Amino acid sequence: MFLDRIKNELIQNQPLFIGEDTAMRSAVLIPLVKVKGEWHVLFEVRSLTMRHQPGDISFPGGRIDPTDASPIDAAIRETHEELGIDPSEITVIGQMSAFIPTSSFVVYPFVATIDNHLTHSLNKDEVEEIFTIPVNWLLNYEPYLHNVPVQPMPLTDFPYEKIANGDQYQWRSRVIEEWFYDYEQYTVWGLTARILKHFIDTIK
User: Fold this and answer.
1) How far apart are CA 185 and CA 181, in angstroms?
2) Model pTM?
3) CA separation (Å) from 138 to 53, 120, 150, 201?
């Protein structure tokens, strides 16, 4: 009986990873748009007046609200709020693997086409401008990598007396991969570049 109950619980829908239910959850669209008959990926330049990451390049999207029925609903809502795109002009093609930079942050990327992307007004509080990069250019471009070492630094109240080796414990450092795409005057990097690279590698 006990093992059967455990088995039944394990076959239910499990979170994507331990901590997903309490993590900060965001969703983004990788928007495909037609420019002069050629497919491009659309990007935003974040408003220069924003408190967080002003001027950075990103995909449309943002934090999943409690009122959003699902991550894709959040991505579509955010795209509408940022770019003025009507949801009826967004066609979702599919979902990519989630990106989990840390156990407390997860991003759900979706690929979608957007019609008439130039006929809408930007929310200038959030978006400085938009630009596009041809998919064929991305398929042939070799992004370059910079590794950023990250070393854990426990706070002074960390209970070293509870663990083996105490304050001599050897914390494992990790390396963040930062990819860069240089296109005309724009540089795509950070989380956006990591998701973009996975998308391009997938369609290759």
Assistant:
1) 11
2) 0.89
3) 24, 25, 29, 10
